[in-house]
Amino acid sequence: MASIVGEANVQVQEPTMGAEDFAFMLQAKPGAYCFIANGDGSHREMGHGAGPCMLHNPSYDFNDDLIPLGATYWVRLAEEWLATARA
After folding, report:
1. Quick one: DSSP state of residue 73?
2. Number of independent structural domains in the chain
3. Would you tell me which of 40, 53, 69, 76 could form a disulfide with 57, CB atoms 3.0–4.6 Å apart?
4. Rounded to two decimals, what is the model's pTM?
5. What percentage of the chain reaches a pLDDT higher than 70?
């Protein structure tokens, strides 16, 4: 991600015990969880409060402007994996 948004915009996260079923998938294949921030909340319509809000919140609204960022991340990740798989 640092190669896309710059090192200063990447925050290393501590391991989390989120309540997802992802652990069951990891029993079959190795993997990792990553987060893409949703901005400061300015993309949300009026009447939903100020500032950002987390998932599972009635005011949550995904910031569609981040779709190209997320897509770029996954494409670069696949490109890097394919480059090492060929070596």
Report:
1. H
2. 1
3. 53
4. 0.69
5. 86
